[in-house]
Write a structure and sequence with these properties.
globular, 8 helices, 7-stranded mixed beta sheet, L-fuculose-1-phosphate Aldolase, about 40% helix, binds zinc ion, alpha+beta, about 260 residues
Amino acid sequence: MGTVTAMTIDRSMKGRVSDSEWETRVNLAACYRLLAYHGLTDGTATHISARVPDEKDTFLLNPYGYLFEEITASSLVKINHKGEIVDGSTFPYNEAGFCIHSAVLKGRPEINSALHTHSDAGMAVSAQKCGLLPLSQTALRFYDNIAYHDYEGIADDLDEQKRLQKDFGNAYAMILKHHGLLTVGRTVAEAWLMIWDLEKACQSQVWALAGGMDNIDLPSEEVCKNTAAQYKRYYGNKPAGEAAWPAHLRMLDRLDPSYRD
Ligand SMILES: [Zn+2]
């Protein structure tokens, strides 16, 4: 990604919101830029959300109609679980995005961020009957620890929210069949790390299956279980991805710090 021109914003939100909301806005805008940098976007579609700290029912979502490389901290739209814009933003938001992210954040009080992609590898694996295979160390993070949700059409029907919540359970990653990927985190950084690992696992699977299923060699069940348990021990009590997050921000700052606007 070269230097990009940030979207024109009608006003800066810095100083108009709490320090914790501003910090969340900067981290969330950074996450949008990271998806753009790593080629995980789908035009203006898909979305990442973050709960506004210390507020009961509000979360931030991208302004619909803008590329992720254009998104800034101030342009994120604050909405409540009724779908009402509560920060005076004049930008619209995506209705399917509201449906998915409101379902996740309402149903999981311990979760503060959700991230949805339509990556090529994610969509490819979402159509495979075998689901995500434990064929790499990265994929083993999700061994017996990934959810699936059947496709029902574009997710703009609020009735789908309860089925999404039920299917997701307590997982941190979900494959939306015939659609894409969805991860969550206790922080934006954790949701980012989860999508990074899930994306890598899906890419590896697509490449490995190019040689046919008969050619696939999987680790033993015992090794799969032990490795999944190792991941849980490392990250169970604290959000994953925090240590590397400042490095991602430094990279973005070198490329184009306008996400902080
Ligand atoms: Zn989608």
